[in-house]
Amino acid sequence: MNEMNKKYLIASGCSFTEGHKLGSKASWATHLAQELDLELINLGRGGTGNEIITQTVINHATMRSDIAKDSFFVIQLSECMRYLVNYDDDEKSIYWHITPSQFIKDTGFD
User: Fold this and answer.
1) Strands 93-98 and 83-88: what pairing?
2) H or E element in which residue 16 lies
3) DSSP string computed for 67-104
4) pLDDT digits (tens, 9 = 90+) for 21-39
5) For residue 14, what are the contacts with CB-CB under 8 A and spacing of at least 6?
6) Per residue in 36-55, pLDDT tens?
7) Euclidean distance between the first and the last CA atom of the chain, given in angstroms as a whole number
8) pTM for the whole thing?
9) Which of 35, 36, 39 is nearest to 4 (CA)?
10) Helical (H) or strand (E) element with 9
């Protein structure tokens, strides 16, 4: 039963929120929305860092204030070592997230 008088659950985060390999129907956000009897708006994107996770929520709430006022927000932050990197050239601008572990050489020793 929805006792919050809200209509939507807006979730943002990395792959855990998106649903990772299990798919969106198995994400924690889907289960929480069902438990709270709310319609899910899942903004989760695999591989994103905290800058994008939080900015996505701000953008959505700003652009869709009609929905935001009737929403309960849950933000799942990513690992703190995931950094946003931007690359600009003459034709395009791209970004991606990296972690320090991507620079560790695999020695084959476990």
Assistant:
1) antiparallel
2) helix 15-18
3) HHTTEEEEE----TT-EEEEEE-SS-EEEEEE-GGGGS
4) 787 788 999 999 999 999 9
5) 44, 45, 46, 47, 48, 49, 53, 76, 78, 82
6) 999 999 999 988 888 889 99
7) 48
8) 0.76
9) 36
10) strand 8-12
